[in-house]
Design goal:
Elements (H helix, E strand, L loop, with lengths): L57 H4 L12 H32 L19 H15 L9 H15 L2 H8 L5 H18 L8 H17 L4 H16 L3 H12 L3 H10 L5 H25 L10 H21 L43 E11 L9 E8 L4 E3 L3 E2 L4 E10 L6 E7 L10 E8 L10 E4 L12 E9 L4 E10 L8 E11 L2 E7 L8 E4 L4 E4 L11 E7 L2 E7 L2 H15 L8 H9 L17 H9 L3 H4 L8 H17 L11 H14 L3 H17 L6 H16 L3 H6 L18 H6 L4 H12 L17 H23 L1 H4 L8 H13 L9 H27 L17 H25 L10 H25 L9 H13 L7 H34 L11 H20 L4 H35 L11 H20 L9 H36 L7 H13 L10 H21 L3 H25 L7 H20 L4 H4 L2 H22 L11 H7 L1
Helix pairs in contact: 2-9, 2-18, 3-4, 4-6, 6-7, 9-17, 10-15, 11-12, 11-13, 17-18, 17-19, 19-20, 19-24, 20-24, 20-26, 24-26, 24-27, 27-28, 27-29, 28-29, 28-30, 29-31, 31-32, 31-33, 32-33, 32-34, 33-34, 33-35, 34-35, 35-37, 35-38, 37-39, 38-39, 38-41, 39-41
């Protein structure tokens, strides 16, 4: 605590005189002294309570007019008026800053809330561009962040959809986009992607999600050091929570445009660092407000209320609000750390109109009520004058405060008696006795106590010097050292509740009845209780006391007949006068100043020295309420006067229209808040809430006025594009509605009983997180509560701030703001995609819907019918569909293609129109998906929100349908480029439960059903023609699994069915019809293909050779493969998914099997024909024929001269070669093993049958040796070859084969006997030589 003489604590006091001539104006008619056109007069006493005009700035408020209107130009007049307006505005802000400073310096109603939601740092345009660049760099691979393809795709989508969105740019411009918003949007964006990823063992989806978010943070942060960012965020978060007084001063300097030096001047002149002065200022203000209430009641100058009965209630409200403030002030602690004594609030005599006078006697102080506690520090430094003691004798000191404990210093030698020992004491005596004694140790054997050398007794006061001083000690007569001195420092700290002390002369009527000098202490017992107490030495209780309540202190002239004292002053009350006198002028000023603060009087005493000084300068009588300053503070007062600050410092707050001043400071604070670095959405910071709460409470600003101004300011910002939290609007609107309609039952439920205490007028409704939560309650629950509250008895209308009066102005302004708010909310719902982009701010749409329901209510009791709310929102969403589609069309450049430089002067082709429509359809789907993803929260407010959103989507799609129909109409006939459009839209619509088979979906089906039918008809005709033309020109070269024609056919059929299947036709009946028709078409086409192949197969065989020179051509194998492929394709193309619809598949399968059987039969017949040709050649050697005899004779004759080849082996070898080649070709070229096995079985069986028949025909003839050899070769080779080809033994070893084998074996034996080895090694027996020969 600074010493009272410090110049920093108080500033110089100006002269004032009480002026009872001019009555105070009522609250509703008060004007600010800074308003244009109200220049204070030379005396400074205008209607606004302005002070003295500063000497150097007299022209600022009243500039000289132009010499002549004809000379001054219009421009100069405008400039002059502008400068005057600016000067008035500057003065008004300075005056307002004085009031704000006092609220910050000594708050006693409000505190900075700690439960408000923390606001996030907002993103600026430059930061948004930086973030875009960082994500673009990641996508370009310019960062070191490792990521998989899925994450890169997610970032790409986020970059394209969110960061590059014009809605995000608008959100940034509105100040509502924070880093947390962008992070939450990305998190929501990737959650579905991560959930759709396949499961990986050992890697949970939560781990993937966390990893992706960490990578996102790394991209978002860029190259910044995360530690620096964290430190910056921590500092900003701390400043967002609680601010010191210095930070609050600086903030409001910026808000009101106050310069630093102006703040310093005002701070010092207003003595903001002196809590006593600030508390006294508050007491004076409250007294002034009570007097004003009395004056309003007396003169009947009331504001215009909605009811005449409210006038008396208004006066009671004014008085009760002041009483509440007094109670708040009374509850403030007087002393810190000590025992706090608080009395019930003491009433002043001039407040008797509203106070029961019977209470006064009960509140009188007694001596025991005044408790003081002093801290003393006694420091013993050294002793001088010890000459009689031996140098080595031990000396020490003791110290004690009368009635307290005794302390002792360390021992020292008499040659060097220094200590520097400090003793700390606590006492309740205002004039304590401090005893310090000097001892030496007794050397006598029988001595019981040490010898006292000397002592000193001091009576310190809080005003005593704090530095160490020499004191002469009292010694005994027989002590040789009579000149002992001791150096002591005694510091006595005054307690917080002691405001001043010192010696005064005094005489009074009821106390201090003799004129004598006494020690006085001015004690503050509580905020409203002060006592002037006189004390005697060593006494804890005052001897006499004077309770200062109701007294007025002032300077006075010396009183004749009173001896003692030089500077006189007195304290006067009805029926009592107490005269005081001090020994010097400065002490008198300090006493008067302290007592002036204690009495709470409106009259401010001015020292006679200053009156003389001002009169010497020719000044006028100073204005009321000039502050007192001590002599050492004249410099601050002079500086304040020099810079024109005195009128703001000395102005009486009761003479100002605080409603308009608060309106101004709240508006400027909101501007400052919206322009800071936080995404506040209109919510004030805790420090701003604290100052505004304190201002309202201290200066009697009505809560309804406060919130009406707040709503108006918020609406203006929202209408100009700023993002404002609808929860905040809801909160203020609910407050005003409850006030105007006069029923607080619902408001109490809405606020959950957590309404903070208020001054009754200030409307101290803190913007706490609890308020945010409560106003977000479901509107249906609110409606139910309103119904319940309607049934409750409500005998008296009450308001949320305790104010029962409602002015006509408040009601009119409320109705106006209610209408503006309704228009704004409907506009926001209409533009919900742009006002709440990507569902940000979180919960804003839900809060907007709930607020709209509240605004539509006629009062706070009767709930609005849900159908009415639904009708309003439906209308908004219908308009929203038009707004959204119009903007989407402009974005897609469908309606304004002429803006493209390339399209200038050119017609838009149908293909380009269709391309643009498909692009627009993609955007339409994206919009609808975003609506579902980001704007579905409305169903939390209303269960039927989802139904309205479905209607909105249908309306939105119907607008798109117009452009889609127009684009399809200009397409040339029989073009199918529009099917991708159908697929795109249908895939989206069929997956949406609400839109599937809806109005637009059915329109889409009706539009494309004829196209699909026409397309299938044309495809059927085209495929049929391609089959006809293809088989006419077919070369039967192998192509994949068949021929060129068959491959083309099967591809077309499969492509057509795949295309129709991918359409996913939503109508089940038509979808079945399409499937059935395509299966039937495929069956018919494959049947045609099979039949044409069968015909071509037969024709091809007929054209081939019948000799052993025949080789199976490639075309024969290709035809077989066509059959194989047809069978495989028929399974896919002709089978229906429905159980009973397998008939097409079974029919075509039967046809294919039958055809393959016929083809095998034809080919085997061909092979048999060739074998029959070989046997026909052997028939020429039949026994008994002329040709046979001739051949035998010729061979025998020739064999005598040359080596004749084995007869008939060339024929056998040619046939065996033919068989083997045919087997190899068929085995290699035909794709179906089953068909090959069937063919080989039939071929082998037929061949054996032919040989057997031939032999049977020659049963009675002996085979010619050449016939025998040839047959043995053919039969054995055929048997071996077919066995190698996999023909089963059961088939190989048939009865036919056994018959042939037996016959040839018999013939071989016969020939061996008759010919004598003429077979030349050919035998039916198996042998290794024959195997080698085969090889």
């Amino acid at each position: 605590m600074l010493d009272p003489s410090s110049s920093e604590e108080e500033s110089e006091e100006l002269v004032e005189e009480e002026s009872g001539k001019e009555p105070l104006a009522p609250a509703a008619a008060r004007l600010s002294p800074s308003r244009p056109g109200e220049s204070p007069g030379p005396g400074g006493g205008g209607g606004g309570g302005g002070g003295l005009q500063p000497g150097g700035r007299a022209g600022g408020a009243a500039r000289p007019a132009s010499p002549s209107p004809s000379v001054a130009s219009e421009k100069e007049k405008d400039e002059l008026e502008r400068l005057q307006r600016e000067e008035e505005e500057r003065k008004r802000k300075l005056q307002l800053y004085v009031f704000v400073m006092r609220c910050i310096a000594y708050p006693f109603n409000a505190k900075q809330p700690t439960d408000m939601a923390r606001r996030q740092q907002k993103i600026s345009k430059q930061q948004l561009q930086t973030i875009k660049d960082r994500f673009q760099a990641f996508l370009n691979g310019e960062t070191q962040i490792v990521a998989d393809e899925a994450f890169i795709n997610a970032v790409q989508s986020y970059y394209e959809v969110f960061l590059k969105s014009d809605r995000v740019a608008r959100m940034v411009q509105s100040g509502g986009c924070s880093a947390n918003d962008s992070r939450e949007v990305f998190k929501k964006h990737i959650e579905k992607r991560v959930r759709s990823l396949p499961e990986i063992d050992g890697l949970s989806k939560e781990t993937v999600l966390s990893s992706w978010m960490a990578k996102f943070d790394a991209i978002y942060r860029g190259e910044e050091d995360p530690r620096k960012q964290q430190a910056r965020m921590t500092a900003s978060a701390a400043s967002e929570l609680i601010l010191s007084k210095e930070q609050l001063y600086e903030m409001f300097q910026n808000i009101l445009g106050i310069k630093k030096f102006e703040h310093q001047l005002l701070y010092n002149a207003c003595q903001l660092d002196n809590p006593d002065e600030q508390a006294a200022q508050i007491r004076r203000e409250l007294d002034g407000r009570l007097q004003m209430a009395e004056q309003i009641a007396k003169e009947r100058k009331f504001p215009k209320f909605v009811s005449k009965e409210m006038e008396n209630m208004y006066i009671e409200e004014l008085k009760s609000s002041v009483n509440l403030l007094m109670a708040n002030l009374e509850s403030m602690p007087v002393s810190k750390g000590g025992s706090e004594f608080k009395l019930q609030k003491l009433k002043r005599s001039h407040n008797t109109s509203i106070i029961d006078m019977g209470e006064e006697n009960e509140n009188q102080l007694s001596k025991s009520d005044v408790v003081l506690s002093f801290s003393l520090e006694v420091v013993i430094m050294e002793v001088q004058g010890l000459k009689s003691l031996a140098p080595n004798r031990i000396v020490y000191c003791t110290m004690e405060v009368e009635g307290g404990e005794k302390l002792q210093t360390d021992q020292a030698e008499a040659s060097k008696p220094t200590w520097g020992t400090q003793g700390d004491f606590t006492t309740t005596h205002a004039l304590p006795a401090v005893k310090v004694k000097l001892f030496t140790e007794s050397t006598g054997v029988l001595a019981l106590e040490d010898k006292e050398l000397g002592r000193v007794v001091l009576h310190p006061t809080p005003n005593s010097p704090k530095q160490s001083e020499w004191h002469k000690m009292t010694v005994s007569k027989n002590c040789p050292d009579q000149d002992l001195k001791i150096k002591l420092a005694v510091r006595m700290d005054k307690p917080q509740n002691m405001k001043h002390s010192g010696y005064l002369w005094a005489i009074g009527k009821n106390v201090w009845k003799r004129w004598k000098k006494r020690f006085f202490v001015l004690v503050q017992v509580s905020q409203y209780t002060f006592a002037m107490c006189s004390y005697r030495e060593k006494k804890a209780e005052p001897q006499e006391l004077l309770q200062l309540d109701g007294y007025t202190v002032d300077y006075t002239d010396p009183q004749p007949g009173l001896e003692g004292g030089r500077a006189f002053f007195n304290a006067v009350k009805e029926g009592d006068t107490v005269i005081f006198a001090s020994d010097d002028e400065q002490d008198r000023i300090l006493w008067v100043q302290a007592m002036y603060r204690a009495t709470g009087q409106s009259h401010k005493p001015v020292p006679p020295t200053q009156v003389q000084k001002l009169n010497a300068k020719g000044g006028n009588v100073p204005q009321l309420d000039a502050p007192i300053s001590q002599f050492s503070g004249l410099k601050d007062a002079d500086r304040a006067q020099k810079h024109g600050m005195d009128e703001f410092i000395s102005s009486n707050p009761c003479n100002f229209d605080h409603a308009s001043l608060f309106e101004m400071v709240q508006r400027l604070t909101l501007d400052h808040r919206l322009n800071d670095s936080y995404s506040c959405l209109g919510w004030f910071s805790p420090g701003q809430v604290f100052v505004l709460d304190e201002y309202c409470a201290r200066n009697g600003v009505r809560g309804c006025h406060r919130h009406l101004c707040y709503l108006r300011d918020l609406l203006e910002r929202a209408e100009n594009g700023a993002m404002i939290d609808p929860t905040l609007l809801h909160y203020s609107f609910a407050f005003c509605a409850s006030h105007v309609h006069g029923n607080s039952h619902h408001m109490a439920e809405l606020l959950g009983g957590s309404q903070p205490s208020t001054d009754g007028e200030g409307g101290k409704v803190s913007q706490s997180s609890a308020a945010e939560v409560e106003t977000k309650k479901d509107s249906k629950k609110e409606s139910k509560k309103r119904k319940d509250s309607k049934s409750q008895p409500n005998p008296e209308p009450k308001r949320p701030d305790g104010i029962g009066t409602v002015t006509v102005d408040e009601k009119e302004r409320f109705e106006e703001i209610k209408e503006r708010l309704r228009v704004l909310l409907e506009n926001q719902i209409t533009h919900f995609r742009y006002c709440f982009p990507f569902g940000r701010p979180e919960g804003a749409l839900k809060a907007t819907l709930s607020l709209l329901e509240r605004v539509l209510m006629k009062d706070i009791v009767t709930p609005v019918p849900q159908e009415e709310v639904k009708t309003v929102i439906r209308k908004c969403l219908e308009q929203a569909a038009l707004v959204n589609y119009t903007r989407l069309s402009e974005y897609a450049k469908i309606e304004e293609n002429q803006k493209d430089a390339e399209n200038v002067g050119r017609l838009v082709t149908p293909a380009k129109k269709l391309e643009d429509t498909i692009r627009l359809a993609e955007l339409v789907i994206e919009v609808l998906q975003q609506n579902e993803e980001h704007h579905a929260e409305g169903k939390e407010a209303f269960a039927w929100w989802s139904d309205l959103m479905v209607e909105h989507a249908e309306t939105f799609l119907s607008l798109f349908a117009v452009d889609m129909d127009a684009a399809l109409e200009v397409q040339p006939p029989d073009t199918w480029d529009s099917f991708p459009l159908f697929q795109l839209l249908n895939d989206f619509l069929r997956s949406d439960y609400n839109l599937c088979n809806g109005k637009f979906h059915k329109h889409l089906q009706d539009l494309f059903a004829p196209l699909v039918v026409r397309y299938v008809d044309l495809m059927e005709s085209s495929i049929a023609q391609s089959i006809h033309r293809g088989f006419e020109r077919e070369s039967w070269e192998p192509v994949n699994n068949g021929s060129g024609t068959s491959e083309d056919l099967f591809w077309k059929l499969d492509a057509l069915q795949t295309f129709i299947r991918d359409l996913h036709w939503p109508e089940e009946e038509f979808g079945k019809h399409l499937e059935q028709r395509l299966k039937l078409m495929a069956s018919d086409m494959i049947e045609s293909c099979v039949k044409r192949t069968r015909i071509a197969f037969e024709v091809k065989l007929q054209k081939t050779s019948r000799s052993t020179d025949f080789r199976v051509p490639q075309s024969i194998c290709t035809m077989f493969n066509v059959m194989v492929d047809a069978k495989a394709q028929s399974t896919k193309l002709c089978s229906m998914e429905m159980g009973q619809e397998h008939q097409y598949h079974s029919k075509i399968d039967e046809l294919i099997e039958e055809t393959v059987k016929e083809m095998i039969t034809l080919l085997v017949a061909k092979f048999v024909t060739i074998l029959e040709g070989v046997l026909a050649k052997l028939s020429r050697y039949d026994e008994g024929t002329l040709f046979s005899s001739f051949l035998s004779f010729t061979v025998k004759a020739a064999s005598k001269y040359v080596d004749v080849p084995k007869p008939g082996m060339d024929v056998a070898d040619a046939y065996v070669t033919f068989v083997r080649h045919s087997q190899d070709v068929l085995r290699d070229k035909v794709n179906e093993e089953m068909y090959i096995e069937r063919l080989f079985d039939q071929w082998y069986t037929s061949s054996m049958n032919v040989v057997c028949t031939w032999l049977t025909d020659r049963m009675d003839l002996q085979l010619h040796i050449y016939q025998l050899k040839t047959l043995i070769r053919i039969v054995k080779k055929t048997y071996r070859d077919f066995r190698l080809q996999g023909v089963l033994d059961s088939t190989l070893n048939s009865k036919t084969y056994e018959t042939i084998r037996n016959r040839l074996t018999v013939e071989e034996a016969t020939a061996s006997v008759s010919e004598g080895g003429g077979l030349q090694g050919i035998t039916m027996k198996d042998s290794d030589e024959e195997d080698e020969e085969d090889d």
